[in-house]
Amino acid sequence: MLSLSAKNHFTVSNSITHVIKSYHIRTLTSSAEKMPHITTPFSTSASSTKLKAFRKVRPVLQRHSSSWIVAQNHRRSLSGQSSLNDLRHLNRFPHHTLKTSNNEFYPAEQLTLEDVNENVLKAKYAVRGAIPMRAEELKAQLEKDPQSLPFDRIINANIGNPQQLQQKPLTYYRQVLSLLQYPELLNQNEQQLVDSKLFKLDAIKRAKSLMEDIGGSVGAYSSSQGVEGIRKSVAEFITKRDEGEISYPEDIFLTAGASAAVNYLLSIFCRGPETGVLIPIPQYPLYTATLALNNSQALPYYLDENSGWSTNPEEIETVVKEAIQNEIKPTVLVVINPGNPTGAVLSPESIAQIFEVAAKYGTVVIADEVYQENIFPGTKFHSMKKILRHLQREHPGKFDNVQLASLHSTSKGVSGECGQRGGYMELTGFSHEMRQVILKLASISLCPVVTGQALVDLMVRPPVEGEESFESDQAERNSIHEKLITRAMTLYETFNSLEGIECQKPQGAMYLFPKIDLPFKAVQEARHLELTPDEFYCKKLLESTGICTVPGSGFGQEPGTYHLRTTFLAPGLEWIKKWESFHKEFFDQYRD
Amino acid sequence: MLSLSAKNHFTVSNSITHVIKSYHIRTLTSSAEKMPHITTPFSTSASSTKLKAFRKVRPVLQRHSSSWIVAQNHRRSLSGQSSLNDLRHLNRFPHHTLKTSNNEFYPAEQLTLEDVNENVLKAKYAVRGAIPMRAEELKAQLEKDPQSLPFDRIINANIGNPQQLQQKPLTYYRQVLSLLQYPELLNQNEQQLVDSKLFKLDAIKRAKSLMEDIGGSVGAYSSSQGVEGIRKSVAEFITKRDEGEISYPEDIFLTAGASAAVNYLLSIFCRGPETGVLIPIPQYPLYTATLALNNSQALPYYLDENSGWSTNPEEIETVVKEAIQNEIKPTVLVVINPGNPTGAVLSPESIAQIFEVAAKYGTVVIADEVYQENIFPGTKFHSMKKILRHLQREHPGKFDNVQLASLHSTSKGVSGECGQRGGYMELTGFSHEMRQVILKLASISLCPVVTGQALVDLMVRPPVEGEESFESDQAERNSIHEKLITRAMTLYETFNSLEGIECQKPQGAMYLFPKIDLPFKAVQEARHLELTPDEFYCKKLLESTGICTVPGSGFGQEPGTYHLRTTFLAPGLEWIKKWESFHKEFFDQYRD
Q: Which residue of B has its CA nearest to A266?
């Protein structure tokens, strides 16, 4: 027990060799709101020349709190006062009473990583992990000294961020959004706007009708579920896409990108370590990160690389059964289709098999379908909702209880509007009660950004034939699509032509996930540098060519195999040639 | 134990009176991707006329999953098959093995509210609660039949959503955002754009410079911490606002509104029931909702109504000590200044006293300062950051460890851009390590909406004297400000002139939180209707006048007292007169 009163001296432990000088205390008196001489419960006794000099230095030290404290301690020892560090812990959450008088106190310690929610510490998100962070450092270095590296720019192939790589936004979208932001333009004479050649008539009309749906301003909160008129557009889009299988606006939630939808769904179903969520390996690490935050279990099911990263339903069922045996409830099953990072697109049969397992075990399915507009020739996308409805028709009673949440986003496709945060989820088989719970969660974040909601409307209702923007819009889409295909195929063929790297043929999405078969010497050097072999390859690739990718470990892979994920969004084919040269040199250097 | 094989019949319990007919199973074979005749592991045996007729009815029933199942069961009993309901639970998480052959299975039950994360079920957010939901119903009713109610429109005084109530956005902001959305406009000849009288020159220039900061497109993901150039603007704004106390861009995080910042901060520090977060009562219910989601404890500290809802530091310290005694760690202290719902603005002394407690106990302070631009004449806003720096200067060593997160938003002030989701937090006293943890959390959501980030830049760097938009921008701001003041004062004076309702004088924010002293008869009727008295008053108010408010219980209040929160955003003064009439009639009806 310690007691302190004004002017007492005491020794707490041997490590404190200085005597603590007490502070004079003045009671707080009310005062005018004049700054900066406020009276507070205490004042310092020191006003030495050293302190005055020190105060000038302080702003620089304030940058890092720990430096600041070190500097303060230094100052205190300069002035003969003892370090308070050793005492601080006493005041933190004292189990004993520090009897204070006149409001003197010892400042408690800061909160540190030790105080942070462990779930947050555990969560990892590699897409913006170590290699991309290194790329940022190199980018900054190039800005200072453009000649200092063997390349002149960083190519961010680590993230599906098309417009960062000079992909142009679709003109129609941006005309509409521009008009929504500045409705004064809509008060102008339509013909004058059209004659200015800045806005097309159909864009003007769409902006006006959207403005009505929205209620008059993109600056007002909308309903938390999203603007009703836009949800109707989404439902119509889904119905048409799914060959007439009806979708209802009540089942649609507009969200700030698909990531927000994942967040809601996992918040709702994750109850802690006894909850299991099946995720494909390799996966998009949003899922494992969110599971870590929710302190729930990831149940990985491996995709089969050799058959184009296909999904194996027996694998899924095995994982489910094992979870049950381990008393973990396999509550949710995540399917990413088209796959990220794999680029695989599921056949109707695969989807049906997945639903069998879901129906049998009562597992909610999350269908992450954000890449459904990124499909390569020769492949057809079938939505999981459509297949579910077919199964329900064909096999009455078997699939009626299946609960499915299907996600889409304006970040991908050919629009690539990642920074606008538009998306939606469609809930199938969720009761009104369950939807109300999700609505409540959504209401705590108030509403998704309204311009993002508008963008969803544009995505699901693009210009149609006969409308003024149709032809140019089609031309823009085709151009982007063709370039993506060309780059994807070039990269794919390049990988397969080189030794030590092979790749499954992409069917969709924006990524390749090649397997790297590193020579033993390279693996040794990686270990020496305390990197995994895939990190090592990615690091070398970055430092030689400026191409930033993400090691396969960020997505999960069969133990003993090494991959990396790259996008094929960067314009041109030059960077692919650079990669090819680098790879050959790398293997020349490390070949056994 | 049950075993099933093809064509077996069995009875499970007395309640199953029908015999289960087995299904023929066909092994899945690969097939062309032709729809809809996919082969699946099993097929139904039924294809009766009744079923075909039923299928036409099905789309309507699909709307509600439970109706769908009922319909299916009905169909099955029509065709002589027994209900599968009673068997479903067996397959859910079977502890025994259901030996199946040929992939037949019984569908498991759906997940229901019983399976939902309890924390989500517990969370409440009253701002969009029962009374506002009733208002939405009445709104829909008015759309169908405008004469059916004693009022012609709903006035949403329940939410701080200015642009929903015809407050116009600031022209300068919207010109810049419009240009950012459609950069083609920036490629035009500047003079021509100006001559069109649609865009002012300073808006064009700002859009160009922001576009450079952003990196070329609002459609690309930005860095997760937010565009660097915009963070610099924020740091400069804070430094200037705080009389030269330096703010650093590294300490700034741009966020999707202040709500996202609260979400990050509480995720990081909430570790479960042993974590306590002090919140003011009354509070903005985002805090209690988020605490419920994080399964941590709210530690309420009561604001003092009779002294204008001031903060009592002794009350705060008492709450802290009690928490410690109950083995709850008082980790975070939330201060809402200006207050929501109270409208109170803290004096420098009050702030200093709050920091004393924080410094003494090592509690992180969240300063929710989103209403700092909504200050009434005669009141001055002092940021908590500024006061902290003063305390650190005046009392070296005492306050060095204090950790503070200060929040701001583009949703309030005179811009009222709620739907655009712009905001920031400034971290003071957080080490680099701690900032990295927050950065990681932010990266899981990728980035805040980029146009919202741009709006933050506009908020902290409005047009200045000499620039083309300055005068009109000032005029717009003053006009909005004056109208807000007029309505606030009118409402305040009206409340205080009536019996049974009294109100503290607002110093800032967008709300009044009057206390209602209901007559006993009214309290009785409320209880009869199973409503709290404040809900009852709000419901009556809504149904008589269309004015939608939020009962005080949504924000917290001293037990035995009743309040409601209303905004003063609705245009004009007519609705205030309506309220006055309603209140007099209400008291005439219920007076003892």
A: B117
